[in-house]
Each structure stands twice: as C-alpha cells, then as structure tokens.
Specification:
The complex is a heterotrimer of chains A (about 280), B (about 325) and C (about 375). Chain A is mainly alpha-helical and about 280 residues long. Chain A contains eleven helices and no strands. Chain A has two domains: about 180 residues, MetI-like fold (Orthogonal Bundle), CATH 1.10.3720.10; about 35 residues. In chain A, about 50% of the residues are buried. In chain B, strands 1-2 form a two-stranded antiparallel sheet. With about 375 residues, chain C is an alpha+beta fold. Helices cover about 20% and strands about 35% of the residues of chain C. Chain C is built from eight helices and 20 strands. A six-stranded mixed sheet of chain C has the order 6-7-8-3-9-10, sandwiched between helices. In chain C, a hairpin with a 2-residue loop joins strand 4 and strand 5. The chains are: A mainly alpha (about 280), B mainly alpha (about 325), C alpha+beta (about 375). Chains A and B meet through helix 1, helix 3, helix 4, helix 5 and helix 6 of A and helix 1, helix 3, helix 4, helix 5 and helix 7 of B.
Chain lengths: ~280, ~325, ~375
Amino acid sequence: MPKSWFLRFGLLIGLLFLYLPILLLIVLSFNDNRSISVWSEFSFRWYGELMQDDQLLSAAWLSVRVAFISASCAVVLGTLAGMMLARFGAFKGRALFSGMVSAPLVMPEVILGLALLLLFVSLEQLTGWPEGRGMLTIVLAHITFTMSFVTVVVQSRLVSMDASLEEAAMDLGARPAKVFFVITLPLIAPAIVSGWLLAFTLSLDDLVITSFVSGPGSTTLPQVVFSSVRLGLSPKINALATIVVAIVATGIIAAGFYNARQERLRKRDEQMAQQG
Amino acid sequence: MAELIQSEMRHTGFLGLLQRVGLSGRALVMAIPYGWLLLFFLIPFLIVLKIALAESQMAIPPFTPLLETVEELKYQITVTFYNFHYMVTDDLYIIAYLNSLKIAFVSTICCLVLGYPVAYAIAKADPKWRAPLLMLVILPFWTSFLIRVYAWIGILSNNGVLNNFLMWLGIIDQPLQILYTPMATYIGITYSYLPFMILPLYSTLERMDNTLLEAAADLGCPPWKAFLTITLPLSIPGMIAGSLLVFIPATGEFVIPELLGGPDTLMIGRTLWTEFFNNRDWPLASAVAVALLLFLVVPIMLFQNVQGKQGGHP
Amino acid sequence: MATAQPSRTQTKLEPWRDPNEKPYVRIEKVTKKFGDFTAVDDVSLSIYRGEFFSLLGGSGSGKTTLLRMLAGFERPTEGKIFIDGVDMSNVPPYERPVNMMFQSYALFPHMSVEKNIAFGLHQDKVPKAEIKERVAEVLNLVQLSQFGHRKPHQLSGGQRQRVALARALVKRPKLLLLDEPLGALDKKLREQTQFELVNIQEKVGITFVIVTHDQEEAMTMSSRIAVMNRGYIAQIGTPTEIYEYPNSRFTAEFIGSVNMLHGRIVESEPDHSLIRSDEADCDLYVSHPGHAAPGTECWVAVRPEKIAITKEPPAGDNGRNQAVGTVKEIAYLGDVSIYEIELTTGKRVRVTAPMVTRRTEMPITWEDRVYLSWRPFAGSVLTS
C-alpha cells in the first residue's frame, strides 16, 4: 500500500467509485422487493425468474455463440496483423494498415455500426451476399472491431519478445512457417489467450454496433437488456449482473492465482540457477 | 515468418527461388488482415460518405443511388449536399455536436482528476500490491458496460441510494433530480471510461525512473515540488493517451446519455441513432456520422501517433 | 586441425601467408545500406579454414551487420559472399551451412536444454538415435551433461552461454558466427571463458567468426582480427601485427593506449624513417621501411610501455627518440605505474613502467624533471 495518506485516500475513492454501483446491483439482486429503497427479505426470486425468461436465455445463447466465433476469428486475424506490425518492418501501405488497425479502438460505435450496416446493405444489393441481416452480419462486424484489440495485445507481446529467438530458429534450419508455429506461436500464446478473452468479452457486451447490423430474429443479450432497462430498474437484470460479475471475478481471481504460482516457480528456478 | 523481420529487404535483384517462396508466404500473411480491414473498415466509410451525399427516399434501402446508369456505359453522379446543408441550418445538430464535445471534454477532465491519484498510488505501491490493485481497476472493465451504466439508475434516481443517503444525513429534505439530467451523463461517462484513463497513466508512471525523484530530493527539492516539476511533466504522454481513449469514444457515446441523460441531454451519437432508427433517414444519419468523424479526425490522428510510438517499429 | 598443443602461437596456423591456400569465406566488395545509412562500406576480406577470426569495432562500426550478412539475416546491397566456394546471395538463413550464437543467446524458453540443442538436428531430419548421441556429445564438450533436462531460465548466465554455443556447434556448421559471445558475462567469467572458447574451437576445428567490441578479448582469442570503423575495415592482421604495426591512427588508438607524436618525414629509406617532430621537440628514428615521401605530415605512434623513464639523461644516439618533460600525474596500479609527462612543448605523453621492486631506488614523483627514451623499433610511422 502506498505510504502517503493522500494517495491512500485517492485510491480508496477511485476504487469505491468503481465498485459501489456493482456492489449495489449484487445486493439488490437478492432483495425480494422490487423497489430499491425497501429491503424486504433475502431471496433468489429474481434468479428464478431470470431462468424462466426464454427470450433472455435465447438471446444469451446467441450472444455466446456470436462471441465465441467472433473471438476465434478475431484472434487469427489479429495475430496475423500483430505479426505484420511487429515483424514485417516498413511494408508498402503500412501507415494505412496501422491506421485501420488502431482506429476501431477509439472510433465511436455509432459510426462503426452505421458504416458496417451500409456496407452489408450495399454488398447485398451488388452481390446478393450477405442475405439479410442476422447472426452472420453480427459476427462479421464483431470480428472487425475486436480484431484491433487482439492486434494491440499480440503486437505488444511480439515487440517485447526477443526477435533473435526467431532468427536463431531459422539459423538452425527451420523455415519461416515452421518458425512461426514452433517458436513464435508458443511464446505469444499467453497474449493470444488474453486477446481471445478480450475479444469474447467485447463481443458479448456490444450493444450499439450489434443494433445496427442485427436483423429481426437475431437479438443478442445486450439488446434484450437494453430494451428492458430503458424503462428503468429491472430486478431480473440485477440478478443477471450478479451472475456476470461472479463469472468474471472467478476468472480473474483464478488467473491471479495462476500468475502468482508461476511467479513462485520462476523464483524457485532462479535460485536453482544460482546454485548451479 | 521471422525471415521477414528484416525491414530492408526491398532491394531488387535477389529474386531467388526461396526468396520468392518467402515473399509469397509473406504476401499471403499480409493479404488476409489487410483485405479484411479494407473490406470491413475502409470501404464502409466510403459508403457512408457516398450515402451522406444521397437523398433520402421512401424505399428499401431508403436513399437514392449515387451512381446511376443513365445510358449504357454512361454514369451520372448525383451528389447532393442537402443533408449537410440541413444540418447547418437546423440548430438541433449544431447544439448536439457542441454539447457532445462539452460533455466529452468535461468527463475527460473528471477522469483525469479522479484517475491520476489512483494510477499514481498504484505505481507507488509496494510491487506485490501492484498486480492485485491493477486487477481491481481492470475487473469492472470485463463486466458488462451496459450493466454498469444501468447500475447508476438505481443510485441516482429520485428514490435511489444517493438521495436516500443524503436525506438520511439530513443534508437535503427533497430528493434531488439527478437521473435524466446532463449531470447523470457526466457521472456515467466518467465512471465507464475511468479504467481507460488509469491504465495508460499507470504504465507511464510505473516506467518512470525513481532515481529522478531521489536526485531531485538530493538536490534539495521538496516532494511536492518534485511531483510538480518532474513527475507531472513526465507523465504527460500517459495523460494524453488516457485522455484520447476517453474523449474520442465519449464524444460519440450513445448508451450513457440514452439511459441516464433524459430527453434533454442532446449528444450527437444519440441524434445519429434517432435519425437512423426512428426517422429512418439514412442519408442524414450518414451525414451526421461524416461530420462527427471530421470533428474527431484530429484527436484520432493524435491517438494513432501515440499508439504508433508505443507499438514500436522494429 | 585438432592439435593437442594448448597455445595458438605454436600451431603455426597462418594460411593467409600461403598464396596457394584458398580462402574458405570470401567477402567481395560488400556494401550494406539501410536507407541513407551505410552500415558496411565496400568490405572485402578472406577467412581461411580453421581460423578464429574477430571483427573488432565500436558500436556502429558495421561488425554486427557484416556478421548478420554471413548468417543470411541481411542481404548485401552490393557485393557477394562465398562460403566454401558457394555464392550465398540467394541462400536463405535456414539453408546456409552456417550457425550463429546470438548475443542474447536466444535460447528457446519453452524447450529444455536438450530440446534446444536438438532443434537444429530435427530440422535436418537427422535420425533420432544419432540426435541423441550428438546432443550428449556436445553437452559433454561444454560440460553440461547433467543439465540436459533443465529449462533455460533454470541455468546461470555462464551455463546459458555454453548451451547457446552447444546448440550452434551441434550441427557442425562450416562456419560458426558468434555475436559478442562473452558480452553478457561478468569480467572474471569472461576471462576464463575466453580460453575455454579457444580450446573448444581447436577441438572441433570449425571456423569461428566472432564479433566483439572488447579489444582484449579479440587479442586473446583470435588468429586474425579485422578492425572495423564506420563500416569499412581499418586493418586486418594478427593480434601482434595490429598491436605492434598499426597502419593508421584509428587502429593505433583503438587497440591499447598509444602516444601520437606529430611531425614531418625527413628521410624515408628502405630500412628506416627519420621524422622531425615538433611535438616531441626531437628527431624520431624509426627502424621500419619508410613508405611516404619526405616532407609528408605524419604521426609516430609509441606505446606507453615501450618508453623508458629516467631521471638521468640517457646516453648517446644524437638525442634521437629522446624527450624531456615534467611528471604531472602518477597512477599506481600495483603491477605497473602510469606516468603522464608534460614535454617542454606542452604535449602530454603517457608512460607505463613495471614495478619491479617494491621500493624503487629512484622514486619518481610529481614535478620531477625526467627523460624519456625509446628504441628505434618501438615507434610506427602513420600517415593517416
């Protein structure tokens, strides 16, 4: 913990600001009463109702499938793009490419959503593909905006990695493709995993772009949540929020423990190395 | 692939067999992401521009084609600046633009003021505490954005937590109307984008050489002065990166003003949404998008510059 | 090649003196440009089979770029490289009979020591049994037999260095390239490893080309040294040649420390040169063949350890190779002492004198008037 009281206070305020709203949702999700100001009794009532909401459940299932496919494709594209930016040097059109990669990181979603919808409409007019809007167009849109995030993660990992590892493999007789699969890929695997998780989360969470490119019959979870919270508080959404937070927190804490364990092993190995 | 590490391989005269194999492999690797981004990122923007210059009509899709075959092999380009003209003459759009910039700017400042101490505290914390603290900052980012914004409805509404708390303290006796005002939008944006400010700030502050401060102290500079004259100027790159990460998307924000802002909080992202979904005026929505993009060109270029420096050329 | 003799000087490995000997590696007029920057500038040199050849230079001298061109990571902008008579222009790194030991060692962190070493053999589809045998053999050579199962991060710096060497050696390349192989080791380990590296090279008989910025390292290990400066080769020669007969001010000053006395050539004969030096305020007699015409501006390089320092005027030789000055600085290093003498002309000259006795009979101290003298063979005449 930082020593200065001022810093501790600043940290506390910042963290409270970040966490109080989430804590509030968790508490409310167990309140039997619909009102936020009245606590009646502890119950799982809203969780039960959540589990019976077919519309919400099918939207959630669609969201998970979309996120899984999008993240998996985005990881492939993002890894290639990261390789290009970190390893290909000054290729022709590099400036345009790195611009196209980093713009979606900050581009307002309404613009991206609108642009992609207009693309899909024009493409359909010209070629008949993609036929209407639905899961396919949502996936295409999600791949496009999440691959930028994967690229950034993979690229920064590659930049911090010693490029002479790849040179050494080639020097020892491995062809470029083999170097990539045997040396580069295993070494950037952690970045690819975090890139995938990031892409999955972003896709699962996206409302605005999805709203533009989805069609009738393909409603994702955020769209359902949005239409219900637009009208105000909804206890079912509190329960959903609690479940989401529980899943994320479990995942992150597990990752934290895993990292701590790796760190302990590394320290042990270092000691071993010193002893010879 | 690692063969391609060499950036200066573009000389003529070494087109040996293997080099050709290498080059074609390289070209293939490049073609996939490059082609994808051209098709799904660059071309869509050109289409937006095109449609912004078309007229709206009652049809599917609801705009006039820009390129029409008048006779065989003869194209006529129909361009109309009607949409842009309309935007300039109707106060609604100008107010929405200015309001968006104002809200984004104020929220960015709030993020900076709130985020700096947090980033600084984490950077100064004992190394074993840094990772868990950082994780605490990142964790909300992994949970649903929509749900986190929604949580504020429960806090800010008239019978919400904040009003009840203030009334319990006796500070107020009437609930304050915060929800569905611009104030709520400021709070929502600051809250949602705070991690984006903290992370780049932290990484700049953490990388800073601690001996600089020791040197300053050694030369007789008190800590607060060392902070102002050394730490603060050196953390400017982090502040710029963080501010851009907050400001640019916040300008086009839709969800937060829609859920928290009430009908009077005009923001351009919301206007675009309304034109598109409610009025089904695609050309006008496109024109709004083009104009928004023009507003953001400078900050986006600035961001790419910062991003490029961090990404690092070999 | 694998002689049992421990010292390089006794092996008489001097193929470059034999006009009939064919060079093993031929670098022909190689230039490498990065944009506007010329990293390697029209370099030609020949390396012979079994040599321990050093590329010596400061940072930005082009030595690493030259090495990387031998490995195939960079392509020459102009010129050609031949290894064992084969033009390497279109041979990619993974097909060259060359292996490299990287400065960072570049050990694959996700593979054990054995896997690291076997990696190159696997690429060549060497049978499994043979791989096992050769890995064991090379691990034995670098004395790491019991560390085969460890991962690189479980090794000390010196052990990692030896794994990197073993990995490069195991493929029995025609040429082994070493980029600052001892750069990451601490001083003591470095000195010890220098000799180890020479012994291993003699055992395996592979031609070594090493890049280093450390002149001591190059002097200790090399059969020949190419001194590089700003992309060109300043001088090629054996360590002795480079040290005793530098051909330019750059080489003389880069290797060891040296006194440069400015002057003009008076006589230039096949057996000697005579230089009138304004800085030393005396005539300098150098017993090497003169190359430049009388009247040419030149510098005479004299190493500090070749200058005798006395309190009495030395005898004879018409005052040639003699100077008078005052002691300004003394540094006692234990084995030797360094004196800095200010000559009557104001020029400062450095002299090192071995501390033969514990208490010198004539202790030289600050502000003493002293006489400096050296033998005719001590100096070198440099015109560039």
